[in-house]
Amino acid sequence: METKHPFLPIIIGTDMNAYNMAISFHEAYGIKPILVGKEPLSFTSLSTITETIELRSGLAEDSQFADILIDIAEKYRAPGKTLLLIGTNDLYVRLIIENARILREHYVFNYITEDLMNQLQVKANFYELCKVHGIETPTTFFYDCKSAEPFEEEMMYPIIIKPSNGIEYSRNKFEGQQKVYKVDSPKEMHNVIQQIKASGYSDELIIQDYIPGDDTFMWDSVIYANSKGKTQLVTFAQVVLQEHTVTAIGNYTALITRFDKEMMVKLQNFLEAVGYTGFANFDLKYDARDKKFKVFEVNIRQGRSSYYVTALGHNMAEYFVDDLIYRADKPVTYLNEDFLFTVVPKAVLRNFVDNKAVLKDIKRLIKKGQYGNPLFYKKDKHLKRKLYLLARQVNYYKKYKNNQW
């Protein structure tokens, strides 16, 4: 076990986001973090960087989460070592926040309060907050699935339907379930609502104006505010491609870093005004109709595509460590460097990006070597993993060829 650093990262999750955080720690400190997950996933199980994975089937259960993490803390506690806790999906971050009081006896971490979490994660509350602070959002209605009345607001079609409570939605699985629905008529809308209600989902649905434009109209921003609420990093990036399968839409597979100081400061000011701490990841879309960026949501953690921050020398692990372990103060950085982040092969970018200006930028950045795929981390030596990733790259090409969202 690595000993020279006064901390040990405990990463909750086994997916791509967990892998990106694990290699961020390995890159910066030569540390192999401990991962805790409910099931093995190939991103992390086939890895020489994440060789210690504690699998606990009840990890996602409210009643078991804190006890499991206390058990992990007992196992890895050592003199002179602080356990640094990091969540990698919405559910795990929510459970850390809800159990913060007891978990702080064993770990250090930087997440928002439960009250602020509910303000930001319940979409009706979030959009109200955005309105108060001058942040543009798409025209949005909320439909309560407990209501016996049909949704009858006048809408221009197509529209978007998605759950306000993603965690509860994912717990009510049903055949044909999609992460986000794009519907073209009132009849189709009513069918989708009935299908979701029948699954047992009883929270609100977001019914929203569809902003026209392909994947390149989507934008991403990563912000880190230290545990005192002081912003230390703000980024802005244009999405090149997102996943096109119905269960994974909204997960970005490639993006290019951009610089828009006005929008970056606007998002920073919003988070500072509400008292935010930790990593935040905004999803936005540019609306060419009124030339404004519209915010869809803020994830209260780093995203799975946020690794571009580390790739550009602003290591995500270092933000946590400098803040929580060394209490170092850092000036705010507005990231302004060119980089293409991708987890798909170059052939997918060349064949499935229609925006000619963006395609030109992709070719320029590849030619300059200013691009990277974190899944092919050079210091990860697991041969079986390399074969798995090559097969995955081929499969990505097939997925984009066969799925147009």
Calculate the terminal CA-CA distance, rounded to whole Å.
46 Å
* Overall strand count: 17
Structural class: alpha/beta
Number of helices: 15
Work out the helicity level.
25-40%
**Anisotropy-based shape:** globular
**Integer average pLDDT:** 94
* Strand portion: 15-25%
| pLDDT < 50 stretches | none
Report on the biggest sheet. Answer: 9 strands, mixed
Radius of gyration, whole Å: 21 Å
Descriptive notes:
The chain has 405 residues and is an alpha/beta fold. 37% of the residues lie in helices and 22% in strands. The chain is built from 15 helices and 17 strands. It has helices spanning 16-29, 42-45, 62-76, 90-98, 100-103, 114-121, 123-132, 166-171, 186-198, 261-274, 308-311, 316-324, 346-352, 356-368, 383-402, and strands spanning 7-12, 34-37, 52-55, 82-87, 140-144, 159-163, 181-183, 204-209, 218-225, 231-234, 236-242, 252-258, 278-287, 292-299, 333-334, 340-342, 371-372. The strands form three sheets. Strands 9, 10, 11, 12, 13, 14, 15, 16 and 17 form a nine-stranded mixed sheet that branches. A four-stranded parallel sheet has the order 3-2-1-4, with helices on both faces. Strand 9 (218-225) and strand 10 form a beta hairpin. Helix 6 packs across helix 7. It is globular, with a radius of gyration of 21 Å. The chain starts with 6 loop residues before the first strand and ends with a helix. The mean pLDDT is 94.
Keywords:
single chain, 405 residues, alpha/beta, four-stranded parallel sheet, 15 helices, 37% helix, globular, nucleotide-binding, Carboxylate--amine ligase, ATP_grasp_subdomain_1, ATP-grasp
